Amino acid sequence: MSEQGIGAALTRVEARDKVTGAARYTADVVLPGMAYAALVSSQVSAGRLRSLDVSAAKAAPGVLGVFSHLDRPTWHRVPAIPYFGETRMPFSDDRIHHAGQHIAIVVASTRQQAAHAAALVKAEYEAGKPVPTLEKALPSAYVAAQGNYVNFPQETVRGTPEEALAGSPVRVKAEYRTALISHAPIEPSVTTATWEGDELTLYDTSQAVVVHRGLVATAFGLPEDKVRLVCPLIGGAFGAKTHVWGHTLLVALAARRLGRPVQVVITRKQMFTTTGHQPPTVQRIEIGAERDGRLRVITHDSTNSTSFVAERPENTVLSSVATYAVPNLRTRVRLARMNFGTPTAMRTPGDGPGSFALECALDELAHELGADPVELRRRNHADVHPQSGKPWSGKNLLECYRIGAERFGWHRRDRRPGTRREGNDLIGYGMATARRVEHHRAAESTVDIRTDGGVVVRTATQDIGGGTLTTMIQVAADALGVAPDKVTITVGDTDLPPGAPTFGSITSGSNGSAVRLAAQDARGAAIRLAVGDKGSPLHGLAEDAVDVRDGRLFAKADPRRGETYAVLLTRNRVNPLRGNGKYSPAESQYETSTFGAHFTEVRIDRDLPRVRVVRHLAVIDCGIVLNTKTARNQAQGGIIGSIGVALMEELRQDPVSGRALAPALTDYHVPVNADIGQIDVHFVNKPDHNSNPLGAKGLGEICSIGVSAAVANAVFNATGRRIRDLPITPRRLL
Amino acid sequence: MRVKFTVNGEERTADDVWEGESLLYVLRERLGLPGAKNACEQGECGSCTVYLDDTPVCACLVAAGQVQDREVRTVEGLGSEEELDPVQQAFIERGAVQCGFCTPGLIVAAHDLIRRNPCPKDAEIREALAGNLCRCTGYEKIIDAVHTAAAHSRGEATS
Question: Is the pTM of this model over 0.90?
Fold first, then answer.
C-alpha cells in the first residue's frame, strides 16, 4: 500500500453528502421554468398504431404539449452504433415492436399533470401476431452479419473439433438456459433537456457523457460542441445507462418544440421495458476430454433473443474461447428475434451467462471423471491466450485457486453428492473460474496544483457508485506526492477533458491512467520549475534528484532541503500549475484479462428446497487494488447481484403476448438483506503494468462472473440434482 | 388544498396540493427536500423512507393530505451540520454507501431499528432492513454500519 494514496482504504469522498441527503442526482436538478414529461407506452407487443387520439390529453390541466409519430419528428441521422440503444429512431413511424414502446410524450407544468394526461392518450392498435418468447423464436434463429452491434466473431473454429470429439474417451454434453434479467438500478433513468438557441444541455443519467454527447449531436444534426451532457452522480446502472435510449432524445425534442426545459423520470415499469435487459440464452456445450481431465475439445452453441429493432448477440462463447487451454473448439452465436424491448449490456454481458454454461459443464465433467473441480481447472490452465497464443499481460489465476481453496476449506467437500447434512439441511460446495477481457479506452484528464497547495482533478468520467471519485483522487495524490484530502475532483460534464465511460470495467485502468499521467505531468513541471528557479532551495539540482511527499518537494540526498508546491507556485505566480494526461491504449503484444475464482456453500432444506448461499468466497486478480474499502464493497455487491441471477431473478413473460408479466420490484425479485449469508472477498493485489501505466484493472464485472455456476455446482453437490436452467427456484428442485 | 405539517422540526405549508399527490412529491417537488428518493413510486424499494410521527413509512405511499398537522422527519433532519447522527456517521465509516440512492431510506430505517432495538443481532438487522432494496453494496457493510451505530448509540466505543 502506498502511504500517499493508492491502495489505502480511503473513505468515499462523497459519502457525507450521500448520508445526509445533500447529494444531488439528475432528478434533483431543478431548472427555472422546467416542465415535466410522461411517456405513453404501447399496450400491445406487435402491430401498428391505427389511431392515436391526443385531444383529451392536450385539453387536460397544465398540459403544454403532446408529441408522437404524428408530428413526424425529423431526426438528422441515426446515431452511431453501438452506443445508441436501437437502430429505429423513436416516433419514426406507426409500427409497434414491443409492449412498452414509447408512442407519445406528454409535457405539462407538473409531473402529476403530465402523468394524468398521459393516461388520457387513446391509442387504437392493429395488433400483429407477436413472437412472444425466445422459445418461440428459436426456429428462426440465425447467425448475424458483422456490423452495428455485432462486433465479435459469431463463429470460431480451432483445430478439428468434430474429429477431436469422436476420439475423446470422456464426453459430456448438456443444454443450459439463462433467464431474461433486468438491471433494476435503484435510480430510474432521468433526462432533463434545455436549449439556448441551437445549443443543447442535457442532464442525463449517463454512464458515458462523452460518448453519449456525440450520439445526441448526430440525432439533432448539431456539431458536438453544441451539446453538453452533465451527470454528476448516478444511483446505480449496471449497464442500463450504457446506451442512449429513446427517452433522452424525446425529451430533448420536446424541450426544443416548447422552448423550455423539460424533465422526464422514467417509471419503474418503463425501466424494465425500455432501457434494456440481459436477454435469455439457450446454450449447448459439448466437451471431450482425456481420462486424466485434459480438455481435447469444446463446442459451444449459443442463442439469445434480440428485438426487431436491434441485433444484439451476447458473447457467451468467449468463455469457451478464452478461458482454458483446449486445442480444438467450435463456437457459434445465433440471434432469435422476439417482440420485446431491445437487450443491452448488463453486468456482466456475455461472460455472465457464458460462464454459467461452461463452468457448469466443467463441473459435470469433473463428476464424470471423479476428479476434483479445482484440480480439473488447474490441469487445463491457459498459460497463454488459447486463441491468439499471445502472452497474458498479467495472470494470477492459479494463485486464486490456491488461496481460495485454502481459505474456503475446499478439502472438506465430499465429492459424492447429497452426502453432507446438518439437521434438515443438505450442504453443498461449488466453485467456478472467472475471466473477463480487460477493455481499454482513450481518456484525458487535467490535474491542477494551486498556490494554496490544493489539487483539482478534472475529467469527464462519472461515478455510478463504484467509487470512481475516490479512487481517481487517490491516483492523483499518489502520483503528485500529496495527501488525498488536498485533492478534489470534478467529473460528469462534457465541458471537462474527455474521460472514459463507466461501463465495461474501463474506469480504473483507462481513466486512472489518464489521471496518473496528468498528475505526473504536473509534478514534473513543478520540479522543473523549482530546479530552474534561483529562489528555490532546489535550484540547480537534477530533476531526478528531487522527490515529493506530503506536498513538499525535497532533495533526495538531503530531505531537509526543499519547499512545498504552495510556496513554489506562489513565489512564481503560477496558479494553477496544470498537468495534462492523455491515455491512448496502444496495440499490445499482450492479452489482458482479469481473473478470479469463486467458492460457495449452499444449504437447502430437504422439505422446502429453497437454496441459501450461506458462505461465498471470491479471490480476484484485477491488478493493483486502488482502494480496498470501495473495492471490497463493490465486489460484494457484484457477487450478491449474481446470487440473485442464480436463485431468483427472472423477468417472466406472458407466453402469448410476450409482455413482461410483472415489471415491478415486487415480482422481479432481487436479493434483499435477509437473503444474504457471509460474503468474503480476497484480492491477489499485484499490479499489472503490462496492461496500463497504473497497473490497475477493472473490478466491476469480474467479481460477478462465475458466481451463478458456483451456486449451481454447489446445488448439485448438495442434492445430486443438476439444474441447468436459471434461476434455481424451489420449483426446479421440488 | 393546503397542507400544513412539521418537517424536520420546522412548520411548513404547501399550497395548491392536488389530492392525489404523495408525501414524497410534496417533500421533493414543493418543499425542496430531495433527500428521500423517488425510485419506484409504489412502495417496493424503500428509498423514500421517512418518519411519519414515529413510524417509518414509504413517502411515496402516503397521500399528502394524511400528513396534515403531523410530524415528518427525513434524512435531512437526522443529525446536524456540526454533528451527524451516529447512523449517518457509521454508514460513512463502514463504507456502507455506494451509489447512495437507497442510502437515505436505509439510514431512516436503520435509525428506527436502533431506536426500537439498541442491540440488534445480524438476523434482526437483515430482517428489519429487508424492505430497503440496495443493488450495489450487497448489504454486508450495511450490517457492519448498523452494529457500529448501535454501539455508538449505547455509548460504547467501537474499533
Answer: yes
